[in-house]
Every structure is written in structure tokens, then in C-alpha cells.
Design brief:
There is one protein chain. By secondary structure, the chain is mainly α. It is built from 16 helices and no strands. Helix 1 runs antiparallel to helix 2 and helix 4 packs antiparallel against helix 14. The radius of gyration is 21 Å and the shape is globular.
Length: 427
Amino acid sequence: MTASPVDAFSAIRNPVVRAIALARVSGVIGTQIINVAVGWQLYERTGSALSLGLVGLFELAPVLFLMIPAGNAADRFARRNIAMAAQSVAAIAAFGLTAVAWLGAPVALIYAMLVLVGAARAFASPAVGTIMPQLLKPDQFVNANAWLSSAFQFASISGPAIGGLIIAWTGGATAAYFVGGVCQVIFVISFSTLPAIRPPEATEKRKFSDVFAGFGFIRRSPVFLAAITLDMFGVLLGGAVVLLPVFAKDILQVGPEGLGWLRAAPSAGSLVMLMIVTRLRPMQRPGRVLLLVVIGFGLATVGFGLSTNFFLSMFCLFLTGVFDSVSVIVRLTLEQVIVPDRLRGRVSAINYVFIGFSNEFGAFESGTTAWMFGPIASVVGGGIGTIAVVIAVALLWPALARLGPLHTLRPQEEAEIVSETEARHSV
């Protein structure tokens, strides 16, 4: 990648991108505040790393059950409306957590609200993730993704810090949950300014097999399968974030304020890298870049696990964000350029399960291994496992390393038709 004179601000001048960015900022800030509050409250009340791991398990369960209906809904109804309804449910869950914290209700009710959060995310993700290709041209995707990811990372930086400060100032999680709910309401208001575009009516009678068409597409696309496999196992094994309350309280001894800054460090790294990406030419070998940055993510995770210095730990987490941001850009743009619009909802839902599986089940895995072997062994072992997965993916799917510039790719079905036509003409 080399410097380029292209207009780095072209996408953000588009009112559609600005509306989506505002919605993502408010929604992610709210989610991050809630995450910090849940982690701190659970560890304060239980003193158990396993209780932190269960957070991921309870959020993942509804995603697995709702993946197929959520993806089909995104391909059949206006994606804006689905996203607004889902975030409204997330707001209700946040206000429910506010009541639980205020009343000192049983811990089981926290997990019940997290199930509701997981259900909301199951429907919001394919709807939000696939709305942009309906509203922008393909040559705008990379720049728009960089700006939207920057908005996401800005929110991920400020959200944990705000959450930690609110908990420190108020002495509890109640106010943090309430602010998180208000942020979800702002998301709904911002998304309401977008057009409600319904997918075109199907020209053929729907078959039951159409419900599972997303699986068929991924099976026929080994490069995309390799990319999401890297993402899934990289975060599954390299997810140290869930254990940050343990590191903040017991190892680094920095309290809730330090926890907020630790949670913000990966997003700070991502934001810096994403602002650089907006000023670079398209990657000529994005597959190779993807493999290298996931290795870097694993090494930075190992460094964090071994560190006992707050600032070194912050730097290692910063690096995980730098590497992860490039991975996100490659994976998101690859999905947007090769998946036909009629399948985007279903493919995105499956993709989200890969991400949800890696994040939520990874949280459970990290909490469980920390409970069994200690937090340091859990984080260091996960980083080493991430590097091993990269090597395995490179050997199983060598086509990933040969992948050309993303903006030159086309929807896979169209590319197959063109290839067949050219083959017939050559005979």
C-alpha cells in the first residue's frame, strides 16, 4: 500500500454515510458502556472470572437460534426498519439492566437481559451490515467502510472510557446502563432519516431451500470462507477483552478508570489505522495483508498477556486494534463486492454468527480457561493459537494469498456467468 492523491473525504460528504456513522457512534457507545458496566458489576458481585465468560454464552445463544430468520428478514423487508426495531429492543434491555442494578436484583436477571441484547443484535447485524450497498456505488465501499469503521472505533474508544468514568463517579452501574439505553434511542432516531428500501419482489416462487441459500454461497466461495474463518478463530482464541476486569483489578491494579482506558486502547489503535487507510491506494494483495495482520494480532495478544505494566499493556492492546482494523476492512469489503444483493442478508447473518461465535463464545472460552489455568495462561495461549490458525488457513486456502485488489472483484454469480460466456465464445 502506498500513498495516494485520492479524495479521502469523499464518502463522509454523503448524507447517507453521515447518518449511518452517527447511528453507529451512538449505538456502539451505548453498547460499550453497557459492556463495561456488566463486566464490572458481575465481577464485583461474584468475584469469578467464569461469570464474565458466561456473558458471551448468554449473548451468543439467541444469535445461533435467530441467525436464519434474521438473515431472511433482511432479504425480504426494509433493512432500515429491521435495524430500528432491533435497536429499540436493545434500548429496552438497557433500561431493564438499569432497573436490575438500581434494585439490586439477582444476578440471573442480568443474564436474562443479555439474552435480549443478543436477540436484538442477531436482527440488527444483517440489516445494518447490508444497508450500505443499497445506497452507495461499489467504488465508494472501501472509503465508506474506512469512515464507518473509524466511527465505530471512535465510539469504541469513548464508550468504555465513559462507562468507566460513570461507574467511578457514581459508585455503581445504574447510571451507566441508563446512558447506554439513551444511546440506543439516538441510534433509532438517526436511522429513521434513511430511506426504507424494500428488496425487489422475487420473480420465482420461494422454495424452502432459499432459506439456507447463504450457506450454499459461502460453500462456493473458498476465499470468503477463509476470510471469515480467520476472523472467527482469531477473535475466538485471541480475545483478551473479556478478562480486562481481572487484569485491571488484580494484575495491573488500576480500578474502574483503568479498565475503561484498557477497553478503549484497541479502538484507539483501530481509529489511527483506519484514518491512515482512507489515504492509501487499494491493497494489491489484500489476502496476504489479511494473513499478516492476524499474525500481528496474535503476537500483540501474547505481549498483553505477559505484561505487568499498565502502559505496556495499553500499547499491546493498541496494536491489537491496529491489526484488527485492517482485517475488518478487508473482510467487510470482500463481502460487499462478491455477494449478490439478493443474498446479502442471509450471508451477512451467517457471517455475523462467525463473528458472534468468535466474540461471545471466545468470551466464554477465555473466562473458562482463566478460571481453570489463570488469566495470563488464557491470554498467552490464545495469542499463540491465533498464529497457528493463520498458518492452517494459509495452507488450506492458498487462493486467499493470491487475491487481487478488492475493487476489481464482482458479485460471484455475475463473475461465474461471465466466465461461462467467455468459455463458450472461445470454443
